Amino acid sequence: MGSFKGHALPGAFFFIMGIWWTLKSVLRYACRKHKRISYLGTKALFHRIEIVEGIIIIFMAVTGMLGEQFIVDGPHLSLYNYKEGQWVQLLGWHHTTMYFFFGLLGVTNILCATISSLPKSLSKLMLSNALFVEAFVFYHHTHGREMLDIFVHQLLVLVIFLAALMAFLEIFARNNVTVELLRASFILLQGNWFWQIGFVLYPPSGGPAWDPNDHDNIMFLTVCFCWHYAFTFVVIGVVYAFVIWLVKSRLNRFCSSEVGLLKNVEREHESEEEM
Fold first, then answer.
1. Three-class SS of residue 176?
2. Nearby residues of 178 by Cβ (< 8 Å), 6 or more positions away
3. What is the pLDDT of residues 225-274, one digit of tens each?
4. Which end of the chain is more exposed for a tag (fewer CB within 10 A), N or C?
5. What CA–CA distance (Å, rounded) separates 188 from 47?
6. Taking a C-beta distance cutoff of 8 angstroms, is the pair 72, 48 a contact?
7. CA 56 to CA 145: how far, in whole Å?
8. What pLDDT shows up at residue 263?
9. Is the distance from CB of 163 to CB of 190 less than 8 angstroms?
10. Rounded CA gap, 45 and 155, in Å?
11. Global pTM?
12. Of the candidates 198, 94, 179, which has an alpha carbon nearest to the alpha carbon of residue 128?
């Protein structure tokens, strides 16, 4: 992950999953509110969604692990070099461990959707565990680094911990759309901030990196972090409006077709009486 691409990849993954979880939470909330919508609100649909989601998460996790292990200077599945007597690319193993736990989350999603005896909250517990492990890994990720590098990673750890806390609360506050959207906002912010770290530490334009000892950079990044968080609520608002519009339009079509069907039945009943 010691490059711009290494930060852009997990940033894209978390941003995509943040949008997906926002869409899924709002869709489930809208379907509970409008129970007359036929296929959109069925349990079969959400079971299929959980399976597809698990497959996508596993794909992302495997892609991340392979990218961390088999890049040019990667560890290539070697943890310790006995000839030189030193560890091999431990930072790469940090990232691989993070991806591995999210891969377990994908497997748990599939198992919970296919095995009825498993509690549905198990996937939430696994998500919380994956995020707590990620926070723990990144907390111990910046020993001996520059002040600016440590600061941007400290903000990342804060976001990850808050997302983990919200996922843990979802175990007890089931189907609470407010908690779900709050967790999704932290996931989106995490994805955004990965990209910001890449731009700060590894500028893609090839220009000089930010001065790691300039306190003004930290002052600006503090404000920039808040702007990123505000942007996540804009994204959530757009997704919320789109899903509500989609559900209401489908509900209107369903009601109009139901009214047409009732009119046809009444006409048939009147013709039978005339005969």
1. coil
2. none
3. 999 999 999 999 999 999 988 888 877 665 554 444 444 545 555 555 55
4. C
5. 24
6. no
7. 34
8. 47
9. yes
10. 37
11. 0.87
12. 179
